Amino acid sequence: MKIKHLEDLNTLVSLSKRRGFVFQSSEIYGGLGSCWDYGPLGSLMKLNVKRAWWNAMTRRPDIVGLDAAILMHPMVWKASGHVDGFSDPLVDCKECKTRFRADNTDSYINEKKCPNCGSKNLSEERSFNLMFKTHMGPLEDTGSVVYLRPETAQGHFVNFQNCQQASRYKIPFGIAAIGKSFRNEITPGNFIFRTREFEQMEMQYFVEPGTDEQFFKEWKERRWNFYIKFGIKPENLKFKDHDKLAHYAKAAVDVEFKFPMGFSELEGIHNRSDFDLSQHMKFSGKNLEYFDEPNKKKYIPYVIETAVGCDRLFLAFLCDAYREEVTTDEAGKEDVRVVMGLHPEIAPFKVAVLPLSKKEELSSISEKLRDQLAEDFDVNYDESQSIGKRYRRQDEIGTPFCVTVDFDTINDQAVTVRHRDKMTQERVAITQLNAYIAAKLKTFNQ
Ligand code: GAP
Q1: N or C: which terminal CB in the chain sees fewer CB atoms within 10 Å?
Q2: For the CA of 185, the nearest atom of ligand 1
Q3: What pTM was estimated for this model as a whole?
Q4: How many CB atoms lie within 10 A of CB 228?
Q5: Count of helix runs (H) and strand runs (E) in the chain
């Protein structure tokens, strides 16, 4: 058997639409640039991605959760540096009207040429702030301007003291949050890799100055292990140190994943020093120092940040999981089984119920069985076309187990359970099925 991995993002874009992972936003109106909707399978899988991250972060004795508002006081963005500094240099080609970023377009950096048509008839470089602006209240005057947050992190900084005092956690401790962020990117693209509306999963870990480098190292290791645990192949991951540090960072490293367009940033891990808390102290006039009671010390904590895009991780999981198993029979005829080899915790459905026939004596048992399984798992039910085709449909969306109800089930009250990857089959009593699936999901890859 030959295994082919994903080579082209378009394969995934069309599978996503066909099977209901991701649709283009407002498609019936021609779509809206770089905006995407998560469909029946995508919405389930996205919840699983978030749950995996959330549990890894908050099922620890030193991290609390937060769900902050998207709209924040406009001074937050003055203090954070986003109003003055969160911009990209923008250039327009006067010939073909292409708009591009001056700082990451090779043909412009080297030869001052348009990357699309090669013309040198270009506009001046302009600084373009990436924050979306809107107005609060009925009047559109400058006094009512608010921004859609470009990162979730600022919610953590302005709530640092609230979270610390409410939880009574001592430093070192962290705040984790999942939420939408918005950036008016000049060049979004590559499906859900870079979009203007996206979800971030960020954790800020507050530490004593002087211990920051050690915690930075520890979080690098933990984040790497998280990806491996959820099935990302180590050869598709690497760390990349930043050559140029952001205004707030003392150290920064990206976790890069090998997307079809090459290794690109999946997650950023940053040592933000005491930059953010100091800025918010300055702009709000509030003292955000931490008092270390046992050691009678006062200090502004340093922050180690881990920040990953949920949509980008969703894409990485799909890219990594996709495989085509190609077999050739004796007559030379090729057969391709497409498998989305997702980690069972990430897969949209854990189990599918497939009655062998649509006859009432099987569908009545099968529907009951679906409800029994749905008490513990996300279940799919499929009764149309041959059993072989139905197995293939489940393989393509990553369902770890298929349960077939056949005519023997009427007498023996047992079903056949098929494993997605090994394709082994086992007969299991209906009364034992939920416990069986739960146990097998835990040891799926062993
Ligand atoms: N608070 C730090 C921060 O926001 P970042 O490196 O700008 O850091 C963190 O963003 C992560 O958010 C990125 O590694 C990426 O996964 C995701 N992200 C950023 N911009 C994105 C976009 N336009 N579309 C999708 N994901 C994005």
Answers
A1: C
A2: 23
A3: 0.95
A4: 11
A5: 14, 24
Q: Whose CA is nearest to atom 18 of ligand 1?
A: 309
Residue with tokens 């610390």: 164
Q: Over the stretch 217-252, which tens digit does the pLDDT of each residue have? A: 999 999 999 999 999 999 999 999 998 888 778 999
Q: How far is the CA of 404 from the centre of ligand 1 (A)?
A: 43
Contacts for 8-16 with beta carbons within 8 Å, 24 or more apart? 8/260, 9/190, 9/191, 9/259, 9/260, 9/261, 9/319, 11/322, 12/191, 12/260, 12/315, 12/318, 12/319, 12/322, 13/191, 15/322, 15/338, 15/396, 16/42, 16/191, 16/318
12 CA distance to ligand 1 centroid (A)?
Answer: 21
Task: Tell whether ligand 1 has an atom less than 6 A from the beta carbon of residue 267.
Answer: yes
Cα of 118 vs its chain's centroid, Å:
36
Q: Whose alpha carbon is nearest atom 22 of ligand 1?
A: 194
Q: By alpha-carbon position, which residue is closest to atom 19 of ligand 1?
A: 309
The Cα 206–Cα 174 span in angstroms is 6
Summarize pLDDT for 382-420 with one digit per residue, the tens.
999 999 999 999 999 999 999 999 999 999 999 999 999
Q: How far is the CA of 20 from the centre of ligand 1 (A)?
A: 25
Smallest CA-to-CA distance from 319 within 22, 39, 1 is with: 22
Mutate to test the pocket of ligand 1, among 152, 312, 314 (most ligand atoms within 8 A of CB): 312
Task: Please state the CATH superfamily assignment of the domain spanning residues 349-442 in this structure.
Answer: Anticodon-binding domain (3.40.50.800)
- What separation in Å is there between the alpha carbon of 61 and the centre of ligand 1? 27
Contact 252, 246 (CB under 8 A): yes
Whether ligand 1 lies within 6 angstroms of the CB of 95 is answered as no
CATH class of the domain whose range is 2-75+149-318? alpha beta
The answer to whether the beta carbons of residues 134 and 142 sit under 8 Å apart is no
Annotated domain spans of the chain: 2-75+149-318, 349-442
- Pairing state of beta strands 302-309 and 262-271? antiparallel
